[in-house]
Amino acid sequence: MRVLSGMDPSPSSREPPFPHRGDETVWVGLSILTALAAASTDAWTKKFFGDGDAVTMAFYPLAYSLPLFALSLPFVPVPALDAVFWWCFALSIPINCFSFVLYMEAIRLSPLSLTVPFLTLTPAFLVITGYTILGERASPAAVLGIAVIVFGGYLLNAPAARHGLLHPLRAIATEKGSAMMIGVALIYSFSAVLGKKAILHSSPLFFGMFFFLLQNFFLVGWAWATGAVRRGGLFRASAVFKGILVGVLYYLHVVLHVWAISMTQAAYMIALKRLSAVFGVLYGGWLFREKHLAWRLTGAAMMVAGAAIIAWAG
């Protein structure tokens, strides 16, 4: 998610222009841990539940993290909430439920090393949609960042270049999971606007706890009520430990994210969080013996660098 990618806010006037010196080590560490938690949730969910369908994969981290969000919310200060918050919040729930299931389908169908890195396209899509919809001109640095991301995506499939220079690009189109993850990144580029607006009209901590409590509740409730998952499956002995692990990782991803982002500018934190793409490639090699790791690590690292360039171009 990279569960929170659709909810990543941009810098606001309430954020410090630069990180406080005393907090620098803390927010950097928290941001890297956020990336690791996000990648770990993806990898272990695929490992434990990848034999099922996308709804089943989505069900377990959401169901087992739901009690944690419910227990945490009473301890979170409730800010003043206006109509703008509620409209953005209400629109975000179905969009993110759909994109989360699509995300799970992407990593179910294809290797982690050929799917997760494409989430770095979200900031690139934000630049493109800003230009096409709002007429915002992209800075030279942002254009450079997009070019670096595209080249990194090319390198993910570089071994296919032996069949022709355009084959790595064709491989992206023919790999179903890669194409789906590009779609997820595009959806996130729109939902990020709603998430940013809702956070600006509340607070990062409240939004993180409240949003994921309701998102999890609605998606889990829908899956259970419609029979999309077996009702007895949640409490099978073989699934409980696995469910607890992915649920805790999902919860930690959210908590670490909102904690880190409250300590610095969002652009800085999100740029480091994109390291989840690199961690995802490493998990792919470790848990699933995915091939061509050298090329894919290089490509993922370049895509993260491109996302960072766009973030700092701001």
From TrEMBL:
InterPro entries tied to this protein: AA-Vitamin_Transporters, EamA_dom, EmrE-like
Transmembrane segments: 57-78, 84-104, 116-134, 140-158, 179-199, 205-227, 239-260, 266-286, 293-313
Subcellular location: Membrane
Chief place where the protein resides: membrane
Transcription regulation among keywords: no
Key words of the record: Membrane, Transmembrane, Transmembrane helix
Membrane topology classification: Multi-pass membrane protein
Claim: Transmembrane helix is one of the keywords in the record: yes
Disordered as annotated region, ranges: 1-20
Top-level taxon of the source organism: Bacteria
Signal peptide: none
Domain EamA positions: 27-157, 177-311
Gene Ontology CC terms: membrane
Pfam families given in the database record: EamA
Stated family: Belongs to the EamA transporter family.
PANTHER family membership: EAMA DOMAIN-CONTAINING PROTEIN (PTHR32322:SF2), INNER MEMBRANE TRANSPORTER (PTHR32322)
Protein name according to UniProt: EamA/RhaT family transporter
